[in-house]
Design brief:
single chain, 1 helix, mainly beta, Neuraminidase, about 375 residues, five-stranded antiparallel β-sheet
Length: about 375
């Protein structure tokens, strides 16, 4: 029995080593995968402490833990002070975003409440020793519902310091069209947590003034591209995953228009309506996009301004080559041999590509000659 156990252990060790030693090629660029961290829970979000050096990061585990990772020693430690989270199904501690202008740390999370959980935004400061976070809830979305589905949620901050936050429709699809709730919306706040005076619905009676766009299902990707455009990615149901160019006051259609179907087969609504916005890209069947990025580094020159999506369905890193008008030229599936569900993807300050997975790994793509 001991001999069999030893044999299996050696086989798994060799297989794991060979998998991460594999050389991948895309556009003639050769790269390998480095495993920087391995835990046991979904790593939902991460960000780098230094915008000029990829030496430290903090990351969230969906079970409610916030952690620090030294990227030189690869040693990790817990950070005290994260908000209490509601944990069920897709719910938990979600995105991590560091505003390097102010050194504020932002977290989105599933916020327990007597009215039902909602998506909230936390703001805090990290201690000098990286052991604790001091802060409090900065904003609570009016998106209360039972269950643990469709919380969103990502954070993006523009050059003017305005905070954008995506909120899922909590599997209450009709509320994505309802301006009296934050469900299925992208929100815009000031850095003080107030409503900007030029938000699109501030003068409409009954509408929640924080709303920037509506008609979203479960938006887990939100970034600004190098030109300042706000790009969002969201899950469809059975097909109909979308990438959208988010603009002030527009309606992106869910559930009135969608390319997705019910999980049992029938169509949902229609695919277009004159007063609703078509996605820039959509996928049938689903790829389940979570985090997204546009590559802005120099290490992978053939990836310049390519859109990358961390995907969960048949997990892979999805690469989209676009022209200057965001028209798709081609797409490619990378890393689909790993069998991972990829949750987030970011360009590091060093120009390398960093990924997190639902199996609890943080990975880095590194070029080889």
């Amino acid at each position: 029995m001991k001999i069999i156990f030893i044999f299996v252990f050696i086989f798994v060790l060799i297989f794991s080593y060979n998998l991460f030693a594999k050389v991948y090629i895309s556009e003639g660029q050769k790269f390998t995968i480095e495993k920087l961290y391995e835990g046991s829970d979904v790593i939902w979000g991460f960000d780098f402490l230094n915008p000029k050096m990829a030496d430290e990061m903090i990351f969230s585990e969906r079970n409610g833990k916030l952690k620090y990772l030294d990227l030189k020693s690869l040693k990790s430690s817990d950070i005290a002070g994260a908000p209490k989270v509601f944990i069920e199904s897709q719910a938990g501690l979600l995105d991590v975003y560091i505003d390097h202008k102010t050194e504020d740390v932002y977290l989105t999370y599933s916020d327990p409440d007597p009215k039902g959980a909602t998506t909230s935004l936390f703001k805090g400061k990290l201690s000098a020793d990286k052991k604790s976070l001091t802060g409090s809830r900065f904003f609570q979305a009016q998106a209360f519902s039972s269950g643990g589905e469709h919380f969103g949620s990502r954070i993006a901050i523009d050059k003017g310091g305005f905070i954008f936050m995506s909120v899922g429709e909590r599997n209450k699809r009709e509320r994505a069209q309802d301006l009296t709730t934050h469900q299925g919306k992208v929100l815009r706040l000031t850095k003080e947590g107030m409503t900007p005076a030029d938000n699109p619905f501030v003068s409409i009676k009954g509408a929640l003034p924080e709303i920037w766009s509506l008609g979203h299902r479960n938006p887990q990707g939100l970034i600004f591209d190098p030109d300042g455009n706000l790009i969002e990615a969201e899950f469809g149901p059975r097909g109909g995953d979308e990438v959208n160019l988010i603009k002030k006051g527009l309606n992106y259609g869910w559930p009135v228009i969608t390319f997705g179907k019910e999980y049992w087969g029938p169509s949902i609504g229609t695919t277009e309506r004159v007063d609703m916005v078509q996605p820039v890209f959509h996928w049938v069947p689903s790829i389940n996009p979570s985090g997204i990025m546009i590559y802005t580094g120099t290490v992978f020159p053939k990836f310049e301004r390519n859109l990358f999506l961390a995907t969960l369905n048949h997990g892979h890193l999805h690469r989209v080559v676009m022209d200057k008008n965001m028209k798709m030229i081609k797409e490619e599936k990378l890393l689909d041999d790993l069998g991972e569900r990829f949750r987030q993807v970011k360009t590091g300050p060093d120009g390398l590509i960093y990924l997190s997975t639902d199996s609890g790994k943080i990975l880095r793509l590194k070029t080889v000659k």
